Amino acid sequence: MILLLLFGWLLLTLGGCDSARILCIFPVPSVSHQATFQPIAKALSLRGHDVISVTPSPLKDPTLTNLTEIDTSYTKKILLGYGFEYFMSKEVAIQNKIPKIFEMYYELAEALFQNEEFKKIYTNPDEKFDLIIAQIYISPIMLGLSVKLNAPIIGVSSMGCWIGTHYAMGNPILPSMYSEMFLPYHGELSFYERIKSTLYFLWSRYYVNLVALPKCDQISKKYLGNDIPYIGDIEKNLSALFLNSNPVLYTPRPLVPTVVPLVFIHIEPPKPLPQDIKAEMDSAKNGVVYFSLGSNVKSMNIPQRVRNLLMDVFRELPYKVLWKFEKEELPGKPSNVVIKQWLPQQDVLAHPNVKVFVSQGGLQSTEEAVDRGVPMVIIPFISDQEFNGKKLQEFGVARHIDYLNTTKQELIDSIIDVAKNPKYRENMKKLKDLLNDEPMTGIERAVWWSEYVIRHKGTRHLRSPTVDIAWYKYFLLDVVSAFVGIIILILVVLIKLFKYVKNSLTKKEKIKTK
Ligand SMILES: *[C@@H]1O[C@H](CO)[C@@H](O)[C@H](O)[C@H]1NC(C)=O
Ligand SMILES: *[C@@H]1O[C@H](CO)[C@@H](O)[C@H](O)[C@H]1NC(C)=O
Ligand SMILES: *[C@@H]1O[C@H](CO)[C@@H](O)[C@H](O)[C@H]1NC(C)=O
């Protein structure tokens, strides 16, 4: 109790600011995305700020008296309408997936702007906010609110950010080194990868500037008024950008000071397991393999062939398999497999009998595995998962499986290897220590930066000059052109001179021979 009071006192005295009004907007109705935003809204409300959160996953916690939630869970059907099979397919190029994500965002944004409760806020000229925090997955579409409500705005992503947002923040873009999070490359890129990375970069500049931003701008103006500035310019005014990515887990790269990496933001202390799950896990004397593809990739949606393969693999394992499966029945279920429609993942991973976590390698699941010290077998399907899988394999805490060409034997061997070889568990512990060795926790950092932006009414003083110069200047294309021009000029002059000398010499010859 005394400790709690002391902690509360510390929180209140550590460079705080008076109670502020904060508006949070988290459009994407995906559980794993929202899991990283809820703690931020909650922590700010516990600091005594008056927080209004527009969210599809409201906490509905009556003890959070300073948190008002506008429930937008009805937008979940929009996400479902986009069919995850498409995003999961490795045959679909990323240049086709990104436009789909933008389209989904247009629909989500319109659904939010049309929400009656939310409309009352953003159309009321008397509403005053000190800060807005808005999710940016890849689209800046909600950022016009900062102009409409005249408040500084912080962007937040549940993972890293894509190239478009890096560009808007002024982070250096180098297709040879800092590959896009949607591309599975890291470390030293091969020649072929660099070609693909460069083409992707060029495509992304074209797509953002000529297709996506004009459309976002149109929707922003439709709801917020025609006097709202161009959305691409508003994006450059972000006061900070919270990324749920950590340079240890992602490739280290230069970032402007207002990009704030967070880690372990949604991890909570383990709670007791529900009785039925606890009984299943306690009785698994050989250990448990926990299998879940997270909240976005449903076991239902993965290709039939892969699902059958997994069942064949699980059947031969000497362990009990706990499978998060969304239906009540799984035809042909092996006897050592237990299916549950929902599992408290953080608490399951804390059970001492868990040997391996077979996962899609999403960032939130990965963080939970690291925090609980459970090694992984990663079968990536979408988004940043392949990148995460390769990276974690390098850390020696996981084995990465390509579901397109894996075999039953490879999967069995991988799971047993990860379960039996203690080095995976030891490396997990090292990785956890590395990630935790920080001056403040992720949530403290998020709160500190939010209040910093409130105290200084934005971060204009930290704005990178990069965002204000034209792209051809940024890439020195004008300087390179000038050099090339001079060289061409010199060459032309030399050639002309050479011809002139040659001509005059041959003329003299002719005169002599006559
Ligand atoms: C609500 O905010 C007030 C200050 O504005 C603070 O004193 C109080 O502790 C907060 N309550 C909760 C539950 O966060
Ligand atoms: C960006 O912020 C500056 C300073 O607050 C303001 O003058 C400018 O109009 C803003 N630009 C846009 C496009 O919102
Ligand atoms: C999968 O493909 C990669 C190359 O694309 C290859 O190196 C690897 O051995 C293949 N794995 C299996 C199990 O066939």
Would you mind describing this structure in some detail?
It is built from 20 helices and 13 strands. With 514 residues, the protein is an alpha/beta fold. Strands 3-2-1-4-5-6-7 form a 7-stranded parallel sheet, covered by helices on one side. Strands 10-9-8-11-12-13 form a 6-stranded parallel sheet, with helices on both faces. Helix 2 (31-46) crosses helix 18 (442-456), helix 5 runs parallel beside helix 9 (191-224) and helix 12 crosses helix 16 (408-420). It is globular and about 115 Å long. The model is unreliable at 1-10 (pLDDT under 50). The protein binds 2-acetamido-2-deoxy-beta-D-glucopyranose (3 copies). One 2-acetamido-2-deoxy-beta-D-glucopyranose binds next to loops. Its main location: membrane. Belongs to the UDP-glycosyltransferase family. Residues 1-19 form the signal peptide. It is an enzyme of class 2 (transferase).
Supply the key terms:
514 residues; alpha/beta; Rossmann fold; six-stranded parallel beta sheet; 20 helices; 48% helix; disordered N terminus; binds 2-acetamido-2-deoxy-beta-D-glucopyranose; glucuronosyltransferase activity; glycosyltransferase; UDP-glucuronosyltransferase; membrane; transferase
